[in-house]
């Protein structure tokens, strides 16, 4: 058994006891109300689910287990996974144990690679990535043990086992999608001298002239891991998992939501926007040119990609972390200069425009720009990299939910006729 498993085994009983007491003593207290507008409006702001791994504060941004993201930007994604689950960063020995465990589980079965090769050239990388995860489901230990009558208090252990198997294989799976989809030749094997995140660009075969690509990927995978529980991917994974669908089914469900243009696909759109600006001006525009370009876009009824947020009301700390990386590693790169000009120009324009509640940049304003600058030049693949990272948060939440015995999700839907009756409309 791993150090992570042993730590969770010692932590979970007390957490379960704490929550049981809370519900027993205060289960009838009201924490939220639902308006008609919220029922029709994507349940925005309705407090009706619990997620202890992270919180998104409108002003401070992402807080992981009580720690602001800005304090964690030099950490590895594996450390973030450990933190989300245990409420503690791993010791050196615990991290080494987790990394060795992932390396042991990293090999992708041949039948998955064969199936990826059989996909048409038009297949979207996210569809191939999610399909690959569903094909791995055949190996689910959770499902096998459930069928053998596994006791309820062992659910989390089987979910952890599946989660580690799946996380370990995600870099190889994403890299296989990348190399097969873009016809880049033979697959590249896992390098045991590299860690989990550095293996992703290595197996993708991305050239790294600057030597900074590994650190960019580490940072990217750390920043995107978790964003509390109500976002589309986390919520979908949670709901599928609540039916005791195993981690493979649940993560695939979450990633299918991440593939939407209003969620994870936005980074692809942001990069396209930056490329369009570059092509329109044959390079970096000046401030006046960008201002006119942005107003033309707004006046045609479109949004400026990479700015604004549904929850945040200040600059996304994930953006700040990428901005600092860009200014440190590649301030003179053409696309980074365009992104910096946007950062200096767009908030003022959006303020004058007067609609957006948050005029500041979000993570997508730079994530695609940096991947592009470091030779990952296929925007349609970006959401798969996001998915490699987001799986960490989704799986941490799922393991905790299995340990807490969280029941199946089943909110009550109502009809329009019922709402009309409720508010006195005939
Ligand atoms: N450009 C132009 N208009 C914008 C805008 C932007 N970047 N951001 C918000 N607005 C507009 C909205 O479209 C809305 O207009 P309508 O009233 O005409 O519908 C108005 O301002 C109010 O919107 P809001 O409450 O501030 O923002 P929402 O919660 O409705 O939407 C988001 C949030 C992210 C979809 C929106 O800001 C947007 O479209 N941004 C650009 C796309 C983008 O960067 N997406 C990545 C999001 C990253 C993430 O989710 O992590």
* CA-based shape: globular
Number of strands: 3
Largest sheet: 3 strands, antiparallel
Strand order across the biggest sheet?
1-2-3
Distinct small molecules: carboxymethyldethia coenzyme *A
**What CATH architecture of the domain at 266-373 do you see?**
Orthogonal Bundle
What does this protein look like?
The chain has 426 residues and is mainly α. The protein has a domain at 266-373: Cytochrome P450-Terp, domain 2 (Cytochrome p450-Terp, domain 2, Orthogonal Bundle), CATH 1.10.230. It contains 19 helices and three strands. The protein has helices spanning 3-26, 36-40, 77-86, 92-104, 110-117, 125-136, 141-147, 155-181, 196-204, 213-223, 232-242, 247-258, 266-281, 287-299, 317-329, 334-353, 364-373, 382-404, 416-423; strands at 54-57, 61-64, 67-68. A three-stranded antiparallel beta sheet has the order 1-2-3. Helix 9 (196-204) packs across helix 10. The longest helix has 27 residues, at 155-181. The protein is globular, with a radius of gyration of 22 Å. The N and C termini lie far apart (63 Å). The model has no long low-confidence stretch (mean pLDDT 97). The protein binds carboxymethyldethia coenzyme *A.
